[in-house]
Amino acid sequence: RKEVEQDPGPFNVPEGATVAFNCTYSNSASQSFFWYRQDCRKEPKLLMSVYSSGNEDGRFTAQLNRASQYISLLIRDSKLSDSATYLCVVKAGGSYIPTFGRGTSLIVHP
Amino acid sequence: DADVTQTPRNRITKTGKRIMLECSQTKGHDRMYWYRQDPGLGLQLIYYSFDVKDINKGEISDGYSVSRQAQAKFSLSLESAIPNQTALYFCATSVDGTQPQHFGDGTRLSIL
């Protein structure tokens, strides 16, 4: 089993739709969780951290389920500009290196 | 100015050439990383460094070497480039093991 797994998609949704992605991780010692956005052949950019109690940033909501070892990202009222690949990152802290998922591709169409 | 700067941004070179990719940062972070990205394969870690005197191999270090010249500088070398090293290369930094990484703009490397 891979350490961090994501459905590669693509998720093809119309503008205004709500879409959710999950990311599962295998290391129960994981401490920090993040969602990144990556546009085609650009650098990954931090979208948001994921906190234990869940957190929201505008149209984006991130949640953590430690019992089932997954994080989620919910995007409401999708915009064309949300089209990108969304990477989840899991860090166990200390000397552990961060582990990236391969990303989920989102395509928002008119 | 960008916090994490990679040079060059693009490079086309021939098989067998030695190439150096440079990364410098103004964030004051101790940890620096080099990744490569191929289409559909996600980010693969080449080397990482937790401080100036620390160098560690990542999952795909063969054919690569690195140098941490200072806290702010981390260079990646391809001693004898081969075509399957054609990829997009990213440098990243982080302050510690729990905080997010910050990426440079990337270097597009093509080896003919």
If you had to describe this structure to a student in words, what would you say it looks like?
The complex is a heterodimer of chains A (110) and B (112). Chain A has 110 residues and is an all-beta fold. Helices cover 0% and strands 53% of the residues of chain A. Chain A contains no helices and eleven strands. In chain A, strands 2, 4, 5, 9, 10 and 11 form a six-stranded mixed beta sheet that branches. A five-stranded antiparallel beta sheet of chain A has the order 1-3-8-7-6, with no helix packed on it. In chain A, strand 7 and strand 8 form a beta hairpin. By secondary structure, chain B is mainly β. In chain B, strands 2, 4, 5, 6, 9, 10 and 11 form a seven-stranded mixed beta sheet that branches. In chain B, strands 1-3-8-7 form a four-stranded antiparallel beta sheet, with no helix packed on it. The N and C termini of chain B lie far apart (32 Å). At the A-B interface, strand 5 and strand 9 of A face strand 5, strand 9 and strand 10 of B.
Outline:
Chain A is mainly beta and 110 residues long. Helix content of chain A is 0%, strand content 53%. Chain A is globular.
